[in-house]
Design a protein that fits this description.
Strand order of the largest sheet of chain A: 3-2-1-4-5-6-7
Structural class of chain A: alpha/beta
CATH topology of the largest domain in chain A: Rossmann fold
Largest sheet of chain A: 7 strands, parallel
Radius of gyration of chain A: 18 Å
Number of domains of chain B: 2
Number of domains of chain A: 2
Distance between the termini of chain A: 28 Å
CATH architecture of the largest domain in chain A: 3-Layer(aba) Sandwich
Largest sheet of chain B: 7 strands, parallel
Strand order of the largest sheet of chain B: 3-2-1-4-5-6-7
Number of helices of chain A: 8
CATH class of the largest domain in chain B: Alpha Beta
Low-confidence stretches of chain A: none
Oligomer: heterodimer
Order of helices and strands of chain A: EHEHEHEHEHEHHHE
Chain lengths: 259, 268
């Protein structure tokens, strides 16, 4: 299938590892010029070096001035932005009494306000170009509230509302906003969580944890960052020009919603 | 993107026109061999002929058509057995047969509701049951149900479709759970306002019932979503092709909207 992505410019936040890095590599393989953004300059440089033609841009999406500069820098480097993949952010585990209010705020600033700021900065450019794609990666805590996950559930549900509302605002300008919803993906993030869950909540070894992880996914196994990258590449492509305000679960059947 | 579909065998129901026919053509273009069915034998023959000659990389014997009413269990068994005998395997099922019956709770008769449920819920179910043993023996299968947005967007005048499509969504998730461990992935695509004979008939109905001209009646549909246009059968076919491909190997139990932003679910 020809995705029509040749020479499109794609900006991926949280692009130096895990899902973001896999998305960047996939889009580059499909012919995109790729800009990856992240906070850690060293990790970014290593990541960019592994992707042909990729450029690295350091910045924290929690800082509006840095988001504006990021978009300006990408435009200066590539001349346009066709695709944004808003992927920055992590999972904040814990029960209500474990999560500091300031940590929840930072979490929401990264995942919701950061994406909002990015959309505000990139939209004028996409309008001028006659359209674009804005794809938000939303962890399934938004659809599947879980034990020890209240902060992520709140932020991810807000991300879903943001995606649907923004898609309504921007569709008339041919800027298509959608979400890809991963769960049960093997990545540095989930590896770290395994240790943390093991230590803090369950008192089970990582091996015991991992043996349970597959069991709770209908497909019986975990996915990989590449599985997410494939879905992002399709949603970003010219083959998905009628898909607006939608989301696609890439979770081995984990989430429980019928609709 | 290499979808990894070369040599796969796909069954598509309701494929003599519209979305089903576009799905067949797109899968042929990706290298699949296809078996299609529809109730109208004459129209099915024409579709097989179009597909055979329209594909840029298929031989005429890569497409077969079997006239089938999916509400008839024996006919469904015959269709699946014929396809299996012809091609030796069945990798993909696209459940697309079924129409969209409009009406309110007052105007819908038991007969109409029965017909709508039989076409889609029973038809989808019968096809899935018929292909499952084959897919299980292969330890691989991909099923996509085409379910219009009447499920996510109930409307007083879409009573039969709303009820039926909601049931189809439940069927999708439930079967997805049941067969995932056999490496069979079941998903749904949810289109709305796609340029097809179905939409043309809805436009005719608007013209009749509201006494408006064609342009006015059509504009109502193309303005019905944030994108401001209707979709094409080929666009739905591209999404179906992605979902049945190797590129979507971790996508199961998902229902993906393709509607220009029409539906109002935040989580849908």
């Amino acid at each position: 299938m020809d995705l029509g992505l040749t020479n499109k410019v794609a900006l991926i936040t949280g692009g130096s590892s895990g899902i973001g890095l896999a998305v960047a590599a996939k889009l580059a393989a499909e012919g995109c010029k790729v800009a990856i953004a992240g906070r850690n300059k060293t990790k970014l440089a290593v990541a960019a070096a592994g992707i042909p033609g990729a450029k690295a841009f350091s910045g924290d999406v929690r800082e509006p001035a840095q988001v504006a500069r990021l978009v300006d820098d990408v435009i200066a480097a590539f001349g346009r932005i066709d695709i944004v993949v808003s992927n920055a952010g992590t999972h904040l585990p814990g029960r209500m009494e474990d999560v500091e209010t300031s940590a929840l705020l930072r979490h929401i600033e990264t995942k919701v306000i950061g994406a909002w700021e990015l959309a505000k900065c990139v939209t004028p450019h996409m309008r001028k170009q006659g359209g674009g794609r804005f794809i938000v990666i939303i962890g399934q805590a938004g659809k599947v509230p879980q034990a020890n996950g209240i902060a992520s559930t709140i932020s991810n549900a807000a991300q879903h509302a943001f995606v649907k509302s923004l898609s309504d605002d921007l569709a008339k300008d041919n800027i298509l906003v959608n979400a890809v919803c991963p769960s049960r993906i093997k990545s540095p993030l989930t590896e770290a969580l395994g240790h943390l869950y093991n230590e803090v909540y369950y008192g089970r070894s990582l091996e015991q944890q991992e043996s349970k992880w597959g069991a709770e996914v209908p497909l019986g196994r975990w996915g990989t960052p590449d599985d997410i990258a494939n879905a992002v590449a399709f949603i970003a492509s010219e083959r998905a020009a009628f898909i607006v305000g939608a989301n696609i679960d890439v979770d081995g059947g984990h989430q429980r919603m019928i609709f | 993107m290499d979808l990894g579909l070369r040599g796969k065998v796909a069954l598509i129901t309701g494929a003599s026109r519209g979305i089903g026919k576009a799905v067949a053509q797109t899968l042929i273009n990706e290298g699949c061999r296809v078996a299609i069915c529809a109730r109208d034998a004459e129209r099915l023959r024409a579709a097989v002929s179009d597909l055979s000659h329209g594909a840029n990389n298929s031989q005429p014997n890569d497409v077969i058509g079997v006239p089938t009413d999916v509400t008839d269990e024996a006919a469904v068994q015959h269709f699946v057995a014929t396809a299996h005998k012809t091609f030796g395997r069945i990798d993909i099922l696209v459940n697309n047969a079924g129409t969209h019956l409009r009406g309110t709770v007052d105007t819908t008769t038991l007969d109409i509701l029965n017909r709508q449920l039989r076409d889609k819920v029973f038809g989808f179910f019968a096809m899935i049951q018929a292909v499952l043993p084959i897919m299980r023996s292969q330890k691989d299968g991909r099923i996509v149900n085409v379910i219009g947005q009447a499920a996510r967007h109930p409307h007083p005048d879409r009573f039969p479709s709303g009820v039926t499509n909601a049931a189809c969504m439940a069927l999708t998730k439930s079967v997805a759970d049941a067969v995932a461990r056999d490496n069979i992935r079941v998903n749904a695509v949810c289109p709305q306002y796609i340029e097809s004979e179905l939409l043309a008939s809805l436009i005719d109905k608007e013209m009749r019932e509201r006494n408006v001209d064609r342009a006015t009646a059509s504009a109502g549909f193309s303005r019905a979503n944030p994108l401001g246009r209707t979709g094409t059968p080929e666009e739905v076919a591209d999404l179906v092709s992605f979902l049945v491909s190797d590129s979507a190997n971790f996508v199961a139990g998902s229902a993906v909207s393709i509607d220009g932003g029409y539906h109002r679910y935040v989580f849908g």
